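User: I'll paste a sequence; please echo it back and then give the predicted structure.

Assistant: Echoing your sequence first, then the prediction.
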Amino acid sequence: MKKNKQALSEKRQPVNWDELHRRLDATRQAIEHIGVPAGEDKKRILRERARLLAREEDTTLEQDSLSIIEFQLAYEHYGIESIHVKEVYYLKDLTPLPGAPPFVVGIINIRGEIWSVVDLKKIFGLPDQGLPEFNKVIIIQNAAMKFGIVTDAIIGKKNVPLASIKPPPVTLSGILAEYLIGVTNEPLIILNAEKMLTDKRMIVDEHV
């Protein structure tokens, strides 16, 4: 009986609540940190997050701007939507096409494909500076048509904010007005590639 009372007395010793809370806090913190990567894994996750953020920024940029290829004709700078640009090609082995419209300077063979090449300066009434030895051709296409545009110089690819593109002047008329999306303050003349590629006047039969 005496031993039973002593055992009960030992069982009824006061609980150290501070120690218990300390252990619980330690356990909770350990659980919260389970699965947190360290070292190379953490760096990899940070890089992936940065890549996703950059993609979101690029998507926003694409929505708020127009991607173009900027080029020069005579003394003016033009831009054409890059979504329709297949490639930029050095003008070589140009073959004249008898009986073609005056704006068609000839045809070229690119890896077995025949492309007609047009000179927009003749269409827009710009001064003709001839064809320099190292001219580049911008190849544009859609599902129905394809041709090359000869340029005096390629400036490069850029994104033009949509807010900076002003509507064509109301006084502008003729084919340039039909092919124009707008003008920026630079000034940069933005051409409508889709309109050019669906214009039946641009269809050239290389077998003429």
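The domain at 67-202 is CATH 2.40.50.180 (OB fold (Dihydrolipoamide Acetyltransferase, E2P)). The longest strand covers residues 65-73.
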